[in-house]
Amino acid sequence: MNRKKLQKLTESLCKSAKHFNKFEVECLIKLFNNLDVEPSDRHAIVGLDRNSFRNILHVTFGMTDDMIMDRVFRAFDKDNDSCISVTEWVEGLSIFLRGTLEEKMKYCFEVYDLNGDGYISREEMFHMLKNSLLKQPSEEDPDEGIKDLVEITLKKMDYDHDGKVSFVDFEKAVREENLLLEAFGPCLPDMKCRMSFESQAFQDAPEL
Ligand SMILES: [Ca+2]
Ligand SMILES: [Ca+2]
């Protein structure tokens, strides 16, 4: 990428990825270009495919749940072309690393609404809770315990009592109890991963 192109891209991304300054946007573009090192097919769309992105989520952000990582990929892949472009990368990271509570609520809801129909259903909760709980030693019939947990969670979050969690329900519940933001599995980086990613990505700060 030549200097002029980089500058233009940086300027436009500074407007859309509003939690980063110009220097940070430029660092993230450079990082993206270094990650995306396999121009195996010249006609291929330039970007991160599912596997490379999941690899970053796993190695850099310590995520382990396949289903959640897949949903995070989809949340980043706004245009749904199965590939994360540089714009999607920077804009996604803006929310992922530094989003406001509003932005994070939208993002988490999108991750947890597995089939994208606008609701987190009993079945979806069951899948996600099962995944995140099975890593711990469980009793005889783990499914029963998870079903109970689904009902408890619904009781807490389903304000309009229609048996599923809409975004309005979710928002209301999270505002009341912030810990519910990641109720169905970690999909945001913890403080340690965030700091270490940022200090690496933004390390060549210009000397003042
Ligand atoms: Ca895309
Ligand atoms: Ca759904």
Automatic annotation (TrEMBL):
<dbReference type="GO" id="GO:0005509">
    <property type="term" value="F:calcium ion binding"/>
</dbReference>
<keyword id="KW-0106">Calcium</keyword>
<dbReference type="Pfam" id="PF13499">
    <property type="entry name" value="EF-hand_7"/>
</dbReference>
<dbReference type="InterPro" id="IPR011992">
    <property type="entry name" value="EF-hand-dom_pair"/>
</dbReference>
<dbReference type="InterPro" id="IPR018247">
    <property type="entry name" value="EF_Hand_1_Ca_BS"/>
</dbReference>
<feature type="domain" description="EF-hand">
    <location>
        <begin position="64"/>
        <end position="99"/>
    </location>
</feature>
<keyword id="KW-0677">Repeat</keyword>
<feature type="domain" description="EF-hand">
    <location>
        <begin position="100"/>
        <end position="135"/>
    </location>
</feature>
<feature type="domain" description="EF-hand">
    <location>
        <begin position="145"/>
        <end position="180"/>
    </location>
</feature>
<protein>
    <submittedName>
        <fullName>Calaxin isoform X1</fullName>
    </submittedName>
</protein>
<keyword id="KW-0479">Metal-binding</keyword>
<dbReference type="InterPro" id="IPR028846">
    <property type="entry name" value="Recoverin"/>
</dbReference>
<dbReference type="InterPro" id="IPR002048">
    <property type="entry name" value="EF_hand_dom"/>
</dbReference>
